[in-house]
Structures are given as C-alpha cells and as structure tokens.
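TASK: fixed-backbone design
INPUT:
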C-alpha cells in the first residue's frame, strides 16, 4: 500500500501531445510534438474521453483535490507540491479536499462511494466548471475507468495535428487522454486549438 500511495503522490500533470509556444501565444499548441509523446502519432495507446471537471484523489486514507498555485501566490495550508512548471511558474499539487472550493459538491458525489478505491477521479456536476458535461448530479468518475471512445469514433480518430483539431471541434468532449500499455499518458484538449472560423 505504501508504494501505491507514493505513486499517487508522485502523479504529475499529463503532458499535452503538442508543444506550446510560450514566447508567442501559449494558449494554443504548435505542430511540434511534445518530446516523449511521439508514440501517440505512431498509433500506440488507447484513447479515452477526457472529462471536464476537477481532479480528486483518494490515497487510501484521505481525499485530496488537485490545486494549481500561481507564481507569487501563497499556497494554501497543507498543500503538497508535486510539480513546478518552469514555463508558467505555477506549482501543481494536492490540498485536502475539505478545504477546497469544491468540497460541498465533492461531499454530494462522495455519498455514492461507500468503499472507494485509491486512485484519481474526476468530479463533475451542475456546480463544477459550468457543467460542460451536462450531468444532473455531482459524480466522481474514476480516471482508470474513463469511458473509452466507442469503436466508430476510435476507428475514425485521427493521429495528426489537423485531423485532431478538426475532430475535437466536431465533438462535445473536452479532450482525449491516450494511455500507453507501459503507463505513459498524453492529452489533448479542444481548447488547445483556436476555434475554427
């Protein structure tokens, strides 16, 4: 259990498939593949739907909420930093869920999990990020059980810059997360691309 808990604590942000240009416009990705993510364009890995909510973790003993702390801001009490982004200056880590802004909605969703398993979850619902998922209730969705894109979409899913931009803008998903059999992951969001004109 100690090793599993340590691996949860060490979880870093999933790299974005395509790199950003922090010198010009970091809102959008470039055509350059992020080093280490080339496997996605080679057709490796299984794509899953990326839910648009907020990340929550259960370490086997306590629930935590993902938190980003902007440069020059003071981290909240009991914040555990996992990663520091040199480009943006943000610290990324975990804070106890009971002190997060999402606690009330987490408590609503938590009622359905009598015996939670350690891991990470996406909290979605009517009061989370404007409810882009259209959920009627607040729910916790385990990331390792995220809904796989159906076979038609999976067969149709492109693996190139232009194809992925068009596909994401044509579907209601926030994005895609690819899972490699060796544990590597990569993600891509609709908002990583400018809206089509």
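OUTPUT:
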């Amino acid at each position: 259990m100690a090793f599993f808990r340590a691996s949860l604590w060490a979880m870093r942000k999933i790299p974005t498939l395509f790199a950003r240009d922090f010198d010009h416009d970091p809102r959008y990705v470039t055509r350059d593949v992020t080093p280490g993510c080339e496997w996605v364009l080679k057709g490796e890995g299984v794509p899953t739907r990326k839910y648009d909510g907020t990340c929550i973790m259960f370490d086997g003993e306590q629930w935590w909420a993902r938190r980003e702390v902007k440069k020059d801001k003071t981290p909240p009490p009991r914040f555990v930093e996992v990663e520091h982004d040199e480009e943006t200056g943000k610290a990324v880590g975990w804070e106890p869920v009971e002190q997060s802004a999402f606690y009330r909605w987490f408590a609503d969703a938590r009622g359905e999990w009598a015996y939670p398993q350690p891991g990470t979850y996406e909290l979605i619902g009517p009061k989370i990020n404007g409810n882009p998922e259209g959920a009627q209730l607040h729910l916790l969705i385990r990331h390792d059980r995220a809904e796989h894109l159906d076979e038609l979409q999976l067969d149709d899913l492109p693996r190139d810059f232009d194809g992925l931009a068009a596909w994401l803008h044509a579907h209601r998903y926030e994005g895609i997360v690819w899972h490699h059999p060796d544990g590597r992951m990569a993600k891509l969001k609709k908002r990583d691309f400018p809206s089509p004109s």
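COMMENT: The longest strand covers residues 25-33.
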